[in-house]
Design goal:
Layout (H helix, E strand, L loop, with lengths): L9 H9 L5 E6 L4 E9 L5 E11 L10 E11 L4 E6 L34
Antiparallel strand pairs: 1-2, 1-5, 2-3, 3-4
């Protein structure tokens, strides 16, 4: 599987997602939601089944309690393929390293991360 191509046919998308089955993934939806969890299953239309899913909601600027990040548990979650913008695997411990204290952007842990593998739908 070549990571140099931006758009992949449906058959290659399924093959790319197979690498991440039963691993922690991050999904960014077309409406900007950031959802993490274990990729439990998928189909040829890129519908994703995520177990132990949670949504990461960033508050900028922070509310009165100064927390930048809110994690909303979702449980078993289905994301329709036409709402998936980005799918990426998650490096172990990257979110635990994320410092969300006042005065920090919270993204320092991502600076030395791996490049995102492109998985996109062709219309």
């Amino acid at each position: 599987l070549s990571t140099n191509r931006l758009f992949l046919p449906h058959s290659e998308m399924a093959r790319a997602l197979t690498e991440w089955k039963d691993k922690e993934v991050l999904i960014i939806t077309c409406d900007g939601r950031c959802i993490t969890g274990i990729l439990a299953g998928f189909d040829q239309l890129q519908n994703l089944i995520i177990k132990g899913a949670s949504e990461r909601v960033y508050h900028l600027p922070p509310p009165d309690d100064e927390s930048l990040l809110e994690i909303v548990p979702l449980g078993l979650y289905l994301i329709r393929g036409d709402n998936v913008a980005v799918v990426s695997d998650i490096r172990d411990g990257v979110f635990e390293e994320q410092d969300c204290e006042k005065g920090s952007s919270g993204f320092e842990a991502f600076e030395n991360g791996e490049a995102i593998k492109s998985v996109a739908q062709v219309w």
